[in-house]
Amino acid sequence: EDDLDWVTAEVQRGLATGALAHAKSLDFVSRANIDVHNGKRRLVLNIKHLNGYHANRTVRFGSLQGARRMMRLDYWVWSIDLKDAYHHIGLFEGDQPYFTFI
């Protein structure tokens, strides 16, 4: 299966599940790239243009012990497998035009 067939199948899968929709506007279009890691392809959307519109916050822990000391009982910690994240993370309708890709 070549890259074009793979991307076409991924887009069709996204449309079928509702994770993707046809663009209503082409004002903000990003390039989608195929990344291959451990023999598996994934569609990567470069949305660096959005970086200037959000607050830049960083968290740095010197060690797991340091992180543990900073945590409180009411803190939440989670992780997510991003393999199919775009199938699970909803976007506010007003923000969707900023995630248009070709």
TrEMBL record:
<dbReference type="InterPro" id="IPR043502">
    <property type="entry name" value="DNA/RNA_pol_sf"/>
</dbReference>
<protein>
    <recommendedName>
        <fullName>Reverse transcriptase domain-containing protein</fullName>
    </recommendedName>
</protein>
